[in-house]
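Ticket 4471: requesting a sanity check on a complex prediction with NAI. Repro inputs:
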Amino acid sequence: KRYNISLIKGDGIGPEIVDEAVKVLDTVAGACSFTLDYKEYLMGGIAIDETGVPLPTETVEGVLKSDACLFGAIGGEKWDTLPRDLRPETGLLKFREEMGVYANLRPAIVYDELVNASTLKPEVIEGCDIMVVRELIGGIYFGQPRANDGQKAYNTMVYTKPEIERIGKQAFEFAMKRDKRVCSVDKANVLEVSQLWRDTMEEIAKDYPAVELTHMYVDNAAMQLVRNPKQFDVIVTGNIFGDILSDTASMVVGSIGLLPSASTGDKTAIYEPIHGSAPDIAGQGIANPIATIESAAMMLRYSLGEVEAASKIETAIRNVLKDGYRTKDLAAYDAKEVVTTAEMGDIIAN
Ligand code: NAI
Ligand code: MG
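Returned structure tokens:
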């Protein structure tokens, strides 16, 4: 089998971490008898430098034609002073919208080997395995009208029933493959949007009798994630609540360099680490490539159906951590040997 993979390396540590993921992907493809054909596209600062815009049309068209997209990160100080429309981050938001990726999946899995890396107590997080399903292209970040005249400013939180249904179904489908528990997070005590959200989740639940649905207000959810994260299996929530809660969930795990994500919809899916371009450590060979390698594993599992290959990668990462190899960000946690970005890629591939 052959698959077309689009690669967007981006800025800062983006190229360094994507290269390591490709190294691991090629190794596992060889072992599992399939071939990955890559095509590189520009986005972000590097696209601005080379083409004048943060999201060239060629990138959108090329990625849409591919089977899946692996993405590093974009952004950096060099482009921070550009007008909003021309900035790298605007390109990324537009890219997600063009790809129609309404579901952002962020697994937060605590590795036994790294229980000491979290700021929470080991007994609170041991064995924690949460999947945050965040709606990505609706809600208050996109709602119209929106304005700011210097005296008064407003945004609008809108969700249509079909938008809630499609993200809700994703969450229940995931729960079926996991611990069969969905916690829907909203603010139904004060928001109309959340009342529709809650009612719609209840309706979807009727089609999934094996799954237990609970509801939680977002303020309580923020507290519960830190108090007792193990109570959660799948969390489903809207754009702004999911943005905030998934960052909280990431700190349950420890290093931002460990967390992958998938953004999926009806077209091509995008796989990327949750962190940014880390300009402060770019070019030093110390970035942790594991979040990106994990994202590549999610790509194999969800977009290509190469489940065995995905599991091989996940097992390799666990074994490497068990053996005590650490990049610099995790050097303080039971490290036997501190390795570079490229060495980490080599060791996982081997
Ligand atoms: P960041 O996630 O790039 O970095 C935050 C901190 O975490 C830094 O100290 C960095 O060195 C560290 N870090 C991040 N990834 C790491 C890794 N793999 N290994 C080891 N350490 C790692 O967030 P920051 O500094 O707020 O933003 C930097 C740039 O990235 C900005 O231009 C921002 O707009 C952009 N950004 C891009 C995103 C994307 O492309 N999806 C997401 C978030 C930010
Ligand atoms: Mg965020």
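Notes from triage: The pocket of magnesium ion (ligand 2) is lined by residues 243, 247 (CB under 6 Å). Leaving this open until the requester confirms.
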